[in-house]
């Protein structure tokens, strides 16, 4: 915890009311700092609430080394954030709000009631009692010539002066909930290089599905399958066929690699194992049994348990001649290639990659080119798969930034 034994009479402006901004507000308020939090939406935490639709996956229970590895090439930077506030610490913090949690069968962690709203209500109550001032419908427009913040409020534009500023503006996904990426232009105008925002945890398009697959199976789930990039181990899980391609948790887990290969090659082929619980040899033997008068569809159902969307996708993508050769058909079932052409648009993605590079920040997440201005949350240049990893790092980054602001204010005696 930040040392709160020396209250400091300073004011901090936080731009953005998602998990990172709210966590920083809590740290600052407990340190005796006046906090004004500005959010462009009618209420804070809009995307956080959306994440709770269908079950609020707050973090993950897997061992820390595997957890940290989910952040891929940004693992060293995110690991530094998580050292002070990891998944276990986040769960304890939630319990402190009076919200109990449990670990699901997948290892994901949820509030007991599976909802985000009670957690957010309890948190906002704590923040208001700590003196945090929330200003909704206040959109940040950049800086004035004197360094003050330009903020558009319901009554018109106003200049906001603060001893320090935290930008926690989210990425560029789900713009209708406030994360529209408009902050990129403001930072670039101030001379801060920003990595282009790209869709992450998103679906991907194929060149085209056949009318039959598109009309009969768009929206159909493929469960208990395995998917992987060329040259990499396959991951088990599930995903969904869409009218234009594929999406879902298994696709999201591979989205960074898929996106990078499409950028490099103009396409990415992923391989799908429709029956990961059965070996290719066993399938070959089963499919080699005489089918007599049964149709191929019936034969696949009887010998391999394939029907519905799985059988339709096999028909769509396996060469026609493989259906006359049981061994080659078994090989197709175990490694069905799906060629992906492009990610779905950024506004449809669950999250975004790109943003403010860690190289532009110090260890407290302060912009080295703009002393007193800090950044946190999804607007930083990192990404992670769904499963609670995104939220955990957002909370942790807000905490690090809040603590960094306290130290900076104390050291500069502003």
TrEMBL record:
UniProt keyword annotation of Flavoprotein present: yes
Keywords (A to Z) from UniProt: FAD, Flavoprotein
InterPro entries: BaiN-like (IPR004792), BaiN-like_dom_sf (IPR023166), FAD/NAD-bd_sf (IPR036188), Flavoprotein_PP4765 (IPR022460), RsdA/BaiN/AoA(So)-like_dom (IPR055178), RsdA/BaiN/AoA(So)_Rossmann (IPR057661)
Transmembrane segment boundaries: none
Domain RsdA/BaiN/AoA(So)-like Rossmann fold-like: 11-403
Cofactor requirement: FAD
Domain RsdA/BaiN/AoA(So)-like insert: 198-351
PANTHER family named among the record's database cross-references: BLR3961 PROTEIN, OS12G0638800 PROTEIN
Xref: NCBIfam families: aminoacetone oxidase family FAD-binding enzyme, flavo_PP4765
Protein name in the entry: TIGR03862 family flavoprotein
Organism of this sequence: Phytopseudomonas seleniipraecipitans
